[in-house]
Amino acid sequence: MEVFEAIAQPKRREILRLLSGRELSAGEIASRFAVTQPAISQHLKVLKDVGLVSERREGNEADPERCGRRDSRRCTTFSPRSCQPSWTG
Fold this sequence. Notes:
By secondary structure, the chain is α+β, with helices and mostly antiparallel strands. It has four helices and three strands; from the N terminus they run H-H-E-H-H-E-E. Strands 1-3-2 form a three-stranded antiparallel β-sheet.
């Protein structure tokens, strides 16, 4: 999938807007939509695959409330990737 195909989907554009300037967990992102967390995870995967977001995993020091699960020992957060043009000029 290409970048323009990825951002053609309105929910993905909204996810990018939510991530602008801050890092959020998948649970925090999903809580803002009326869809399932697996659906949001799929959108995040597409955005990650085309290079628009990055993923960071935290170990045992993660705040389980932030990840949306009380028993979580690992938290994955997403943030926007900065756009660096690949051309010179």
